[in-house]
Amino acid sequence: MKKVFPAFVSCVLIDKYINQIDIYDSKYIFPLIFQSIQYFQYILHVKINDSDSEYLQQLVEVSKNINAITFHDYPVKSFNHIKILMKNCYIDSVAFESALDESAFQSFIQLDHFRNLTYFRVSNLKNLPFSSSVSYFNNLTYLSLTSCDLLVGEVLKEIELNKLRTLKELDLSENIGRGFNDSNHVALPNQLNSLYVDKIEWDVNQLIIFMKLCCNSNLSLLSINDITMAKLFDNKNKKKKGVQNDVDEYINNCWNSFLNNLPSKMNSIVTLNWNSNRINEQFITFLLNSTFLTNVSFCGCNYSDILLIKKLLIDGTIEKANIQNIAFDDENGYLVNFKDFLTDLSKMKSVTHIDFTHNSFDK
Questions:
Q1: Which of 93, 172, 203, 362 has the fewest CB within 10 Å, making it most exposed?
Q2: Taking CA 238 as the corner, what is the angle to CA 235 and CA 243, rounded to the nearest 5 degrees?
Q3: Residue 362's pLDDT is what?
Q4: Cα(first)–Cα(last) distance of the chain, in Å?
Q5: CB-based burial label for 200 (10 Å; 0-12, 13-18, 19+)
Q6: Contact (Cβ atoms closer than 8 angstroms) between residue 311 and residue 284
């Protein structure tokens, strides 16, 4: 390691676009970093597979630009050094990825200078006590709570009740698509710009309520990739003869119900991430009616959707489209549709950028 490290830090110095390091074996790496600290002047974000330490505090204090720390995949129980960094405003962003239990979470958000943070992220903390914690998030600009067994509707309601006026970005991906109540409507904060709810299993009626909520909000970005519909059958029943057909029919009915109950348009959304989800003519009409929409992502769409996407790009005001990893089980059908799409590129007057990477162009 000692022989390789000088070559490594030289590369860091040469490339000012390297602004993040991920530290493993910190007791060996930190002394080597300190020997060549001048090479790390462009580093903004430190990820570390370890607990809080005096070495980490020293690195942040002597560096010029580090303002973000992520602890990952290692239990963090105490915060003696990071709280000093927060107190002295060295850092404004802290994340814990599979690194906190409930007790440590509560201890951290109750630190005196937690309010100095603008970015806070926690992942894989099951049964996170959001309702009793939300009052600590009043100064955050960005809050990410992913894979924490949270009910999306209940979180949004608590945010509304507690008036988190500075919150601009919220990530609730990989949580639970329930918690909305028809008789207890939720409104998103006016200043919330971006909402991420990727990889969530939804009850279809809850998804309909959620989509109406987003369409009537001031959001400019909605990311809702990889929707799955809540299962009607358990895994044991799936194995029975004929049940799989029932499951497929149920999922189709859920999607049809959702697409049939879309609002007429999205009021303010500029960017929509709709990767690996279904598309039909009703959905394209919904997007065409959404006049602020200029950026779309349909990665993982089915090859049969290509012509629907073409209609959107010709008739709408889309400027940027991301169409990576198109899925197909009929290569000839895929190639025919793709050729048809490319033939009409000149008709897409508003489009300035299309990303087709990770697709097949063999023929």
A1: 362
A2: 155
A3: 64
A4: 47
A5: buried
A6: yes
